Amino acid sequence: MGKKKTPQINSSSTADIAFLLLCYFLMTTTMGEQAGLQRRLPPIPDKDQKVEDQKVNRRNIIIVKINSADRLFAGNEALDVTLLKDKIKEFLTNPADDPNLPEKEDKVIEGYGTCPVSKGVISLQNDRGTSYQAYIAVQNELVKAVNELRDEWALRNFGKVYASLSEERQKIVREAIPQNISEAEPKDVGKK
Description:
alpha/beta
């Protein structure tokens, strides 16, 4: 009796099958979206444009600081992050025309007319030791304050919240309630 030959499997097409399976899984798998901060950068200035220093009145700026121990300071007072939104809303609206809060200027908004617009700027500063969680919590409160002001303005003037408005009306609301958040580079307070 002779030796039995064991049948061989043709492996030339297995690489093709593996490639097809890889392509299938790449095309059908959904990737998770990264959560982050949505910011619109200013446009790149023209090369011929002259740079001019803008003088900002001290009363128009509120400095929000987060130190390395994640303590929050808005203006000159220590705050809990849950109180920051209301502090920022009061700062930007200046309801009692306080001379220590931002001034307003009448601005002509296309499609709406003349409207008093706050010159308030929020300057966010943090330490290099600030935790990411505290930084994001403060960012969220700042944006929430501006969004609530936009909703209130839109309800008062158009009868709908900001998100329900047409793009044209949303632009009017953005001009009436600008989001002026300036972020300074983190500092290392512990070292000199």
